[in-house]
Each structure stands twice: as structure tokens, then as C-alpha cells.
Amino acid sequence: MIWNQLAGNLTQGLILGGVYGMATMGLSLIFGVLRVVNVGHGAFIMVGAFAALWLFTALGITPIVAIPIALIIGIALGFVFFYLVMKKLVGAPELTSLLATFAMGILLEEVVKLIFGTEYRGYNWDVGRVDLSVTVLPWAKIYAFLGSVAIAVLLYLWFNKTRAGTAVRSVVEDSEGARVCGVNVGWVYALSFAIGIGLTVASGVLLTMFIPVGINPYMGGPYTLKAFVIAVLGGLASPYGAFFGGLIFGLIENGSYTLFALLPGAEPFALTRFLSFVILLVILLIKPTGLLGAK
Amino acid sequence: MKGRLLVSVFLMLGLIGWGGMVYAGAPAKVIIGHPACLSGKYAKAGEQALGGIKACVKWVNEVYGGVKIGGKRVPLEYKYYDCESKKEVVTSLIERLITVDKVNVVFAPYSSGLTLSGAPVAEKYGMLYMDHGGASDRIFQQGFKYIVQTIGPGTRYHVGTLDMIHKVDPKAKRVALAYEDSEFARMVMRGAEEHAKKLGFKIVFKRTYPKGVTDLTPLLSDLKAAKPDFILGGGHFEDGQLFNRQMADLDINVKALSLIAAATLPAFYEALGNLAEGVMGPSHWEYGVKYSPEAARKEGLKWIGPTQDEFVKLFKEALGKDIMPDYHAAEAGAQVLAYVLAVEEANSIDPTKVRAALDKLKFMSFYGGWDVDETGKQVGHSMVDMQWQGGKRVIVWPPEAATGKLYYPMPTFAEKAKGKVAVPK
Amino acid sequence: MRLVKYYPLIPVYLGYLVLFLIGKTLPGMWQLMAMLSFYCAVGQAFNIFLGMTGYVDFGYVAFMALGTYGMALSIAHLYQIEWLGIGIIVIGFVLAILMSGLLSVAVGAVALRLRGAYFAIATIGVNEGFRYLIEGAKLWGGSEGIIFSKQLTEAFGRGVANKLSTFWADVFVLFIAAIAALVTLCFIRGKIGYALTALREDEEAAKVMGINVTKYKIIAFITSASFAGLIGATAWALKLTHVFPPEVFEISYTVECIIIVLLGGAGTLLGPIVGGLIYGLSKYWLTVIVPGFQLLIFAPIIILIIVAFPEGVVGMFKRRVRGTSLEKFVI
Q: What is the CATH number of domain C2-329?
């Protein structure tokens, strides 16, 4: 019976992990190119969640269509924030950019609160569910997973097959060298930041396909923390690492729950979170560039 | 120079503060002070409380004619600040309210933790401290002398629910308890567990989940395997929605589901739609309860305050928004009424005298009954259980307060997906 | 005269004295003063590490939390031992230092090998990890935390207990801030200051020069953490008479520390005080004037400061007074 539970939890964890991973790709991209940790990460996910909510309840647009819309909104937002704030901070000590992204996050939360209020909202997009014997999966969750994979693949293609993507990769490798080769490094920074934000906002939509309730301006916090762990797992600078890191994280988070639940008198959820942070610390100690990062 | 600059800046600040103190607070009015939670984690409840207090203050001034004290009728004022749901801001704001704004009573900020944080400061000034948002029983075990509770204690929340199910379906013995791991929810769980055992229920699942959980799937999967007949649980708003939603995702069907805090709010149904049909929740107050001057007379209690509909109207005006008040608003409003009555009984605004009057006070308002024990804990107010039927909240228990019949058992999620509503024939 | 070394402390102590006097003499200012001195104190403590090394410890609040637990455990368990009297509080402080110090050693061993963003993330990991350990393993009351108002009252009697919570707790904060200032000055002026400045400028070069960078990092880290523990023990445990894990492990406090130090000027002695005062006062007035909107106003202001004034108020001031007689007062 325990094996059934475990199998069920692992399946759920894998699916959720895909979404987590996709949500972290933006974080890793921004760090990889600009060496900036976006501490306001969760707030951008929240923006995507609200986008999905509003598009569905006000305009009847299904979440699947909302994904590209959110992507575009995110990219636009990213450009705005970059030219307003981040541009002047490239090269500044890490602390200042950390605080700047944090302040951006707060600003977003407060603006959304002003527009939408503090109510916890949700929407109901019911497209049925499929019953695997060990667990039950709504189709919405499966679509979310497929969407995450699709975006990861698209990103891969963009990085490797387009000129803009190649330019970005060159800057990650060696920004001085890239500059010498004629790459407009300033533009690459802006583009990367914008795409990173775009990915994060789009992931908010995917997240609501998984959990379509509890949407409120302050929902981003827990996701920022998870994103840090996943990013480190996969390699702070590697977007693909982030995706796989997310899968692993989802598996561990859900899988370990069943095991911890066996301990009498313990609170399993808190322990799974404890475990995830222990893993974080272990990886930072042993292989800080992440399980899949470069040496 | 820097030192001198600093000193002069401080002197200036001191003068401003002192000036502010001199300017504020002329006698001949009664002032309620409140470090409200208008932003941060309790923003939602805080906003409701704000509306409820403003509504009742307005009623006292415009309909009731003011507070009767010393032979005159004196206006009631309400001074509030935003404590950002943070404890260190609470203490500084409470002191400001007491010493600068010269309030006569302090309403505690929402949540047991913040209520506790402010208690020592209130005690220091011997200021009356009224609690409308902290349901933890432990607050009243600490020996504070000036604290009085309007909200019902946590341990009572699910007691009525268990009584109801015991009566309606004596054969449903298997209960699952799944609560948030926070001060308030744990009190509820404790009370529920005790009462369930007393009534002979079998607890087949008992677990907690942390505040701010983002995914309950692992817990619910284990719960499903325990095959309960009905589920009691919840914590606050976001997890309630998540709970119900993920039960639907995992196709967990039980005969009854009762969630604290979240299920009773309109946002719950808005977020979940038909999936919320038949879900129940205990509440301090729902629109539709049958408390009225006649009911008060029948029980031999004093009645004060607006009627339900008057309260709703005043509430919407106070906030300038077309949202319905929930029980946070009602209990905060009722607290205003309790205070006014106590001041009139004591014929004084002296906190010690008013506190003594509150001890003896028993009355009924649109919110329900009100009576506290010697520690200040609320014992006169009963919870009601409501259920979502056809998109409307119907009070199904206790029979004296019910506005409709209970729909039992709850439809399955498959049925709900097809549009089945939980409306009894 | 050797005393000249201590001149920079004069404006600091003057500032604290003025705060204390205003709080004591003007009615209604005490709690505000307490809040301000709390911010100054944490700024001072945090600055010992951040200011000197430039590393951001995002898990800083965990040290404050452990200090809170230290005091809470002492009171909750020892209140019945009559002859201890005020010793309970002393033991509380000692426990606070021990617990936060121990955690800092554990964290330091892992995190201090890392740099920049990795360090920041590792420290978040510790903060959150420890909190979940307490909640998950139901340590020290688990998520129920500890409420010890009653025990405090039983140990000291109602009057004294109340005075402890509403007066002495805040006075202790000022004391701790004063000691932290002294320590900061000694560090800045001493070998450790020299080493850490070298590290801040260029860590690799410093190592090559033979400076034992790690040793000094650790000293600064543990010192900063111990002060955090002391502050937690008094400003949170003694003052509020309860400890709930989610309340004491809130990452927003760390962020406030960062803002205060940056605002005032990282690495300066006066910086945290100026930062603490400005931050605390602005928050207070904003909440009085525009309740509900403070964060909306604060966030863009923070961005502005970061972009336009990265060295903070005192940093700018230092440049202005260079070469004048005031130089020895402003550090």
C-alpha cells in the first residue's frame, strides 16, 4: 500500500516538477547572463497567475492561449524594468541588484493589490481527469506539464538555432570576448532580462493550470524560495539545468512526503521542506555549479 | 557638527510628537483605537474588520444617538493605523493610540499572534484591550487583566458540526482531521478531536499541514487511502480553497466536508464554482442568521445595534465597495456595541470600571449572543454551520439558527462537474 | 592620546542617549523609540558582517530567532526556581548567544566557502531549513511555539514582569546596540578591519597577499550572529512574551536589515544608526499618514536610493567631511 502511495506521489511530483522547473528557467537565465539574482521572482509568477485569472474570467480565454499572451506581457514588463532600473546596475555590487529586484517585486505586489484587492481568487477550468490507479490527474495538470516541456524545447531551439540566442550564449561564455566580436552586449542584457521575466510570467499561467485557486498579490513568496533551491540544484546559470532541477525537486518534495509521514509525531510537509534545504546546502558544498552545470 | 545636527533633528521630532500630543484628544468624546492590519498577511481580514467597526460606529453616532455617559450623549470616534500585520509595529502604534490619540479602548489587531504581541503594552497602561480576531484559548491563560474576547475560542469551532453529523447520520463513524499547523487551527483540531471521541467517532486520519502550503496533494492522497466518511479541517483562506480544489483533482469523495475560515467566505465559491457545492464551514456569523430584537427578548437578553441588513448597508458605505461583510466584519462591529453598552453600564470610560462592566455584560446583537467568563474568554456566542447550496450560503445548524435544511451526503465531484447542486428538495 | 581612537563613538552614543531621553520624557514616544532603537541595533549588528565583508547573509533572521528561543526556553523552564531571580534573564541571554553562535558556526562552515549569490542562497537555505526543522520535528513546541507571559509573571510578579516587557527589554536593546557599536569600531580600526577591507576590494588579491581571509570572515560572522541572538532575546522574547516560528523566521526582517545598512552606508559606524532612524521614522509616519499604502511608496524609494545613492547617507557625508576637523567623528 505504501508503494502505491509513493508511486502516486512521485507521479504528481514529476508533473508539478515540470512546472516548477519551467518557472525557474527565467531565474537561471537572468543569473547566467547578468549575474543578478531576481529576488522578486515570485512576484512575477504572481503577475502571470493574475493574467491567467483575468483572461479566463473576464474574457473567457483558456489558459493554454493565455500562455503566449503572458509571455508577451512578461517580455514587455522585463524591458520596462530593465531600462528603468537594471541598466544602471550592471556591474554594481551584487547587493544593490538583489535589493533592486526585491523592491521591484514589492512594487508589483502593491500595484496588483491596488487593482485586484487582497481577496483570494481562483477559476474553474474543468477539462476532466484521468484515473491512473495510483493517483488521479486532471487533464489541466497534464497540459501544464506539456506546456512546460514545450517552452523548454522552444527555448533550446532559440538558444541554439537563432542569431539572437547565439549572441546570448556568447555573452554568458565571455562577455568581453563577445563584445570584441561585435555583439551588442547591452542589447543582449536587455533581451535576456526581458525573456527571463517573460518566462517567469508565463510560468504563472502554467502554475494556475496546476493550482487554480488561492491567487492573491502575496502568493509569490514560497515560489521564490523553491526557485532558489531548484536553480542551485540545476546550476544557477543554466536554464535547462533549472528545468531538470525542477523535475528532481518535484519528485523529492512529493516522494519524501510519504516517507516522512511514516514518522510518528512529525509534520511531514515541514520535513520535506527541511530536506529540500539540506539538499540545497549539500549541493552548494559539493558541486556549487549544480548537478547539471558546467565545472 | 554631525552630533549637533542629530540632536537638533531629534529635538524637532520631539517637538512634533509633543505638539501632536497636545493637539489631539479633547474630552467629551469616546475614542476607539485600533492598529489594524491593512496590509501584509492579514490584510483581507483587516479590511473586513475596518468596515465592520466603521459601520457600527456610524450606527452608534447616527442612529443610536451617541454613547450615553454622565447624563449626556457623546459621539464615538474611531482612530486606526496600519500595523502591516507585523508585531513590532503593533506595539509602537498601540502606545501612540493610547498616549497621543488618547483613546479609551484599544481593539487588538487581527490574529492570535499579534493580539498577544500588543497585550503587554495595553496592560502597562491599564488600557482596555478588546480581542475580535484572536481565537487562541492560550491568550486567556496568561493572566492579562484587561483583555476581553468577542470572537469565539478556537476549540468550539467544529463542535457543532460533529453534533450535527452525529444526529443526521449516526452510522458515519470515520472522521478525518486535516488542519493547518497554526495556533488557531490547532485549537480547533484539539476541540474537534476531544468532542469526536466523546461522541464515539473513529478518527481514521489526523494530520496537519504548514501555513502557506502550496500543494496538498501528498496529504490528500494519504487521506484518500484512509477512506473517511467525512472530513473536518482547514486553517485560513488560501489553504481552504486549495483543499477543496485538490480534493476534486484527486477525486476524493466523502459524505461531508467542513473547512474553517475559508469555506464561509463568498470568495470561496467564486474561486471554486460548482466544486464548492455542499461544502460546509463553521462560522461566527453569516448573513441570514435569525438574530433579532424578538429573539433577544425571548432569551431575556438586551438587544443593541443595527439589524443585519442595516449593518450590510453601513458596511458597504464604510468601505465604499460593494462587497458583503463576512464574520470578521460582524465580530469587529459587535465589539463596538459591546464596548458602548459596557461604558453605559459603568457610566464611565475608566478602563477598570468598563472591564468590570464587560464581565457582567450579556446581550444580543445582529452578531448573536455575547457573554465572557472571568478570564475574558467569549462563552456566550454560538457558532453556526453553513453550507453552500446552489451558490448560496444556507445556515444548516443549529436548528434555532437554521435558514434551511442540510444537504447530505455531499454530491461527488463527478456529479458536481456535471452541474449537480446541493439543494435539498 | 589613545582616546582619539574612540571619538567616532561620540555621535553614536549621543544619538542613543537622545533617543532614550526622548522616549523617557515625552509621553507616548517610548514604544516608537523602542522600535527605532531596534532598527538601529539590528542594523549595527548586521553591519558587522555585511558592512565589513560585503556578503549578504539572507538567513540572518535565523540568528535572531534562535536568540528569541534561548530567552524563551530559559523563562519557560526555569521560572519556578525562586532563588534564580534576575538570573533567569541572564541565563536567557547566555543561551541566546550560545544558540545563535553555534548556528553561525554551523552555517559558517558551509556557507563561508561560497561567494556572492551562492552565499546568499546558502544562507537562505539555512534560515528556512532550520525553521522547517523546528516545525517538522516539533522541536521546542514546534509550530505552536512558546507563550510564556504567565511564567514571566509568576517568576517576577505582575508589576516587574510588565516593566521588563515594556521598559527593560527596550533598554537592553540600546545597551546591545551600544556594545555592537564599540565592537564595530574595534573591528574597523583593528587588524580584522584591514583584512576585510582588503577582502572587500579584491578577495583573490587579499588571499595572495597572505591574509587569512577565512579566519576573519568567520570572526565577523559569528560576532554579527551573536549580537543578532541578543537582540532577538530581548526585543522579541522579553518584550513580546511569546515566540512563534513563522513570526521569528520571517525573511522580511533580514531585508529590513539590508535596507537599513544600505541606506545609512554599509561598513560605516554611523551608517546603521542613521539608516535605522530614517527607515523606522519613515515607516512610522507613512503608516500614520497613509495606512495601507506604505509599501507602495517605499518600494520605488528603495529603488531610487539603490540607483542614485549606493553609498548611503553616511557614505556621502564621509566624503564631504574628509580633510575637515569632523573627520575623526565620522566613521
A: 1.10.3470
